[in-house]
Amino acid sequence: MNNIPLFLIIIPLFTACLILLINFLKVPSILTKLISLSSIITILILIGFSTLNILIKKQIFIYNLGGWKEPLGISLHMDGLAWFSSLLGIIITLFGLIYSLKEKNYSFKFYFFFFILLSGMQGVILTNDIFNMFVFFEILSIASYILIAYSRENKAIKASFDYLLISSLGMSLFLLGIGFIYQGCGSLSLTGVGKNFNIANGIPPSMFQLAVSLIVVGIGIKAAFIPLYSWLPDAHAYAPTPISAILSGIMIKISFLAIWRIIHILEAINFQHFFLWIGSLTALIPVIWALSQTDIKKLLAYHSISQMGFIIASFGAGSSLSLTGSLYHLFNHAFFKSLLFFSAGAVIYATGIRDLRKLSELYKKIPSIAITSLIGALSISGIPPFNGFVSKILITTSLKEYPLPSFLIFLAGIGTVASFTKLMMIFFNREKAIQENLGNFSPNKIKKIPKALIYPLIFLSIICLLSGIFPSRIAQGISNFILLKDLAYPLKVYSPSNIGKSLTILGLGIFLYLLISTKRGKQISLALRKRELGLNNSLLLVLAGLVVFIIFMKVL
Amino acid sequence: MEFYLTFLLFLIGVWGMITKENLIKKIMGLNIVDSAIVLFFILIGHRQGSTAPIMEKGIKDVVDPLPQALMLTAIVIGICLTALALALVLKIDKKYHTLNISQIEKLSQNE
Amino acid sequence: MEKGERSEIVSIISRKLVPYILLFGLYLISYGHLSPGGGFQGGVVLGAGIILLCLSHGIFLTEKKFPLEKIAFLEAFMITIFILLGIVGLIIAKSFLGNIFPLKKIEEVPTAGFVFLLNLVIGLKVGAGIILIFYSLCERSEK
């Protein structure tokens, strides 16, 4: 049983190598797909096996690599949080794989890097050694750079290069932080670091602050909070659709969970509180850009950042209710954002167009995609009875004590509704509403959507609905089994006041949509679209973010 | 003193990454940052007067081998990243016919 | 000498030098567990030998001797072998990459269990990888 964490990393790695090897034997490509599917299903079964021991018996699976125990060796820990994120990662990856099976452009190289990505993801979740975490982060990111550039379009390659430079700078900062930690306490395992690396044990405060800031900013680039997110919209938008869904659905969350674990282990409570402010700003500011976008996938990518803001803000508040809300929203966002990305990918597949302004009346032509997109949009906007509503109510309830952050999050909610109204207009708009100068789109060109693209959409929609209908059970489950805390709050999610609140946001959002679709609004959108940060400024912002974090640590 | 010098090297690398317009020079900046970190780790493990950690007869005072082992891994990762970045730069050059970042950004906005 | 022509000196010297470089690479791999060196370093030296051939004799001649497909296959094969060895270790020695051979004294063979075997696998994999990186940066991989 204790070998399960090892297998979660080894199986994807071995699958990747096997795919590479059998490619030389000139086997039909169906074998590659069969191997991929069976490997993911094996991992899913392994995680299923461990459920009982981890959740009910509260056992932690520890695997010591090479038989060396901590603090000398590297060990893999699988506790409730790791189980949760591992399971989430595998489910989204499975859907991504099913979605990618029908695509003919994806050769064995795609599947190879796909599994390397999966292996890196599981490694980051499971490892209990901070340098090992760095290595897995690099594996994860190298695979993702290649997958983002996979389509070999101009913008995809540019986005991948930008991401490579920014994220490598971040990883260097992370490594520097590890250096300070090793200098301070001479240990690299997270357990040892937690025991020895704190101010009470004689670590100089400035070193502690510097190390924590470096590590948080280094990983934060992948978790994409303000001001470190400027690489994300391009990278997530121009990646192949299954990869967009995996990057947005899982990868940024795994980076965030790594920050979560490190902050909990270092007991940097003040720092956690700082995330309340970072998170609420991250929720609001990308929404402004999202409102101005005309590219379907780029709009969704901006919303990934914004929803991460909800999760981070809720994490920052730190009470058991808000932590539950944070994890619940993380869970929900993984599902509805991959649902939305898959739907957007299906629209692009069917029409070949990614510009919102050129599409209209798609409801008549691809009704199934229209319905699943609508479910995704309702979920992300927080409309009952879908899952986004539940977790957003948990988050807003837990943030009641902090007026300004909750106001920012309220505004972000309005912006979300407005931009998803804009997105939904491609399905329900009238044809004559399209501007004439953008070129006409003739309805004959629509391709038939294969079933492999539709099944994941249906499953994800059902999950979105189910996790919205049974809110209290899931919330209790997350709180009791994963956070190991009692949820000291009577959950009444579907109360009239909550529903009223969400309907208010809906109304204001539609009003905002009407505002931005006026002529003046469109001018402002155009101006905003041209004001995206370049590579140099993004790199500069990383440094600026680091300085802000260090100053903040000093002040508190 | 040495710590400040490695820090200076780190800053030089970051400065190169941020201010240089040429993509290859940006990658060089990244490599300088990597080297600075390698030096930093080696300095952490170093003690005056100690020798390399190859345990033979008569050797007592050795440097801490762990940071060196870590840095081997970091160097390997650095090589992979540099190779990948150079491959991407080749592709960018093929598509945009320039390596100047501001020109590339202008071209990609107009598409 | 005109531009673009190859120098005889470079060609002959590098041809004579390459076997010794490869031998040195193998030395680094096989003594990795006793002295500085090991799989990765030795592999890089192996790769550097082939890259020297590329630089002195041109990439066409080198690719005839060391075809891209075979090098790529070697890399894929070696990494699979590495993981398989790890799993064998897991089954026999109860830990991933655990030692399956008896341990002996320093002068005897095999000295450090199957560290030598792992170093060899890693070395060949890294050498193949370095050559592949060089080939593809020369844009030969697309043909």
- The percentage helix of chain B is over 70%
The biggest sheet of chain A, with number of strands, parallel, antiparallel or mixed sense and barrel status, is: 2 strands, antiparallel
Under CATH, the topology of chain B can be stated as Helix Hairpins
**Low-pLDDT stretches of chain A:** none
**Termini distance of chain A?**
44 Å
Mean pLDDT of chain B: 89
CATH architectural label of chain B: Orthogonal Bundle
The N- to C-terminal Cα distance of chain B equals 50 Å
Please state the overall shape of chain A, judged from the principal axes of the Cα atoms.
globular
Number of strands of chain A: 2
What ranges of chain B have pLDDT less than 50 throughout 5 or more consecutive residues? Answer: none
Q: Can you summarize the main beta sheet of chain B? A: none
H/E order of the elements of chain A? HHEEHHHHHHHHHHHHHHHHHHHH
Provide structural commentary.
Chain A contains 22 helices and 2 strands. Chain A is mainly alpha-helical and 556 residues long. Chain A has a two-stranded antiparallel ribbon. In chain A, α4 (108-126) runs antiparallel to α5 (130-148) and α10 (241-266) runs antiparallel to α13. Chain A is globular. The mean pLDDT of chain A is 88. Chain B is 75% helix and 0% strand. Chain B has 4 helices and no strands. Chain B has helices at residues 2-19, 23-45, 65-96, 101-110. In chain B, α1 (2-19) runs antiparallel to α2 and α2 (23-45) packs antiparallel against α3. Chain B is elongated and about 70 Å long. The mean pLDDT of chain B is 89. Chain C is mostly helical and 143 residues long. Chain C has one domain. Chain C has helices at residues 8-30, 39-57, 59-65, 68-93, 115-137. The relative contact order of chain C is 0.17. The model of chain C has no long low-confidence stretch (mean pLDDT 84). Chains in contact: A-B, A-C, B-C.
